[in-house]
Amino acid sequence: MSISISGLKKDYVRSRRRVVPALEGIDLEVKEGELLVVVGPSGSGKTTLLRCIAGLETPDEGTIEVGGRDVTKLLPGDRDVAMVFQEYALYPHLTVEANVSFGLKARKVSSTEVRRRVDQAAESLGLQDLLDRRPPELSGGERQRVALARAIVREPSAYLLDEPLSNLDAELRTKTRAEIRLLQKRLGTTTVYVTHDQVEAMTMGDRVVVLRGGQVQQIDTPAMLYDHPANAFVASFFGTPPMNLYPAQSGGGPSGASTVGVRPEHLRLVPPATGRLHGRTETVETIGSDAIVHLKVDGRALLVKTSRADAPIDGQEVGVDFSDTDMYGFDENDNSLTP
Ligand code: ADP
Ligand code: MG
After folding, report:
1. Which residue of 27, 213, 266, 327 is 20 to 30 Å from 2, comparing CA positions?
2. What's the gap in Å between 44 CA and the centre of ligand 1?
3. What is the predicted pLDDT for the residue at 179?
4. pLDDT tens digits for 139-197?
5. CB of 46 closer than 8 Å to CB of 38
6. Pocket-testing residue among 14, 20, 212, ligand 1, by greatest number of atoms within 8 A of Cβ
7. SS3 letters for 64-126?
8. Full-model pTM
9. From CA 36, how far away is CA 147, in angstroms rounded?
């Protein structure tokens, strides 16, 4: 089912004087069957947004609809959405099977139906051999799959996942993010997936919402966010290493731009004294077949991504070239000037 959020505001009141604005008017639409990723730095309001959708926080203003039904004032249990928490929140003394079926028994689902759903979820997530273990006897990745299974068996209208991979090591994270995406496509259930990781957002999302300070910066497909960032924050949030940004007077750029940007992978190293910029190599990082070249140009740091074979040596003078079409311009409020 689709989820429709409009004008959502939420402040946390810490004391009479101290109010923390967490969400400052969020409008967004999660389409039926979509995997929508919400990404942003720590403290940008991602968890608060999910908790409002789940009914665990009461918004100060705004409405939330699930499948066209206004759920803004409903209790969490009446919303038909299942949330997976960052810390999993499993019962340590219960077996995997009891953890997974816990919510169903509480909802008075018949025991044959519980059996069917648990078996199916266990099969989807490869938990068949772990059903009689307890959480302390599981690895981080296994616990994470149990937490997902517990959400899946509820067969809700939507899943809300809050940084479910953040406790896993890098290798398992890469593997699991592909698995979650496949599973979501197979189940076809509308999903809001929260992460602070730009790579996770780019690789998993049908569309991605970028949050900053409780405000939506842009909602778009991963390719659009990368090619057409709405502002300098989004431009520098995606991409490894991030986009080079510098004041416009030092490098031309679109008219009216106060900041210009070029991605490291769009810069080309050329012989010294040729090209549009001239600088000196400070250091070179090699990552497999790629190299990140750290240059100093007119006293400013500039990163160039190139192949290891083309990388200069430390201290070497180089020229840098790029085409106008790879240049981004941002106005004095950091909004994009390049369509
Ligand atoms: P994220 O999940 O993106 O890291 P959160 O939604 O947890 O961000 O937090 C958004 C803002 O609200 C932050 O400034 C955070 O410190 C604040 N905040 C979150 N929860 C509470 C709370 N229970 N009480 C007071 N402030 C909170
Ligand atoms: Mg959070």
Report:
1. 213
2. 8
3. 87
4. 888 898 899 999 999 999 999 999 988 888 888 888 888 989 998 999 999 999 999 99
5. yes
6. 20
7. EEECCEECCCCCHHHCCEEEECCCCCCCCCCCHHHHHHHHHHHCCCCHHHHHHHHHHHHHHCC
8. 0.92
9. 19
Q: Is-cis flag, bond preceding 241, omega within 30? A: yes
Residue 243: CA count within 13 A, CB half-sphere? 24
Confirm if 23 and 59 have CB atoms less than 8 A apart: yes
Query: How many residues make up the chain in this entry?
Result: 339
Closest CA to 320 of 334, 335, 307, 303: 303
Six-digit token string for 26:
């969020």
Q: Which amino acid is at 65?
A: E
pLDDT, averaged per 10 consecutive residues of the chain (339 residues), comes to 97 85 96 98 96 96 96 93 88 95 85 93 90 93 90 93 87 87 93 96 97 98 97 96 87 78 96 93 95 95 96 95 93 88
Q: Residue 42 Cα, ligand 1 centroid: separation in angstroms?
A: 9
Cα 178 to Cα 183: distance, rounded to the nearest angstrom: 9
Cα separation, 333 vs 232, in Å, equals 9
CA-wise closest residue to 298 among 276, 266, 314: 276
249: which 2 tokens? 């007077």
Q: Is 52 in the pocket of ligand 1 (CB under 6 A)?
A: no
* Contact partners, residue 109, CB within 8 Å, separation at least 6: 117
How does the average pLDDT of the chain come out, rounded?
93
pLDDT of residue 286: 95
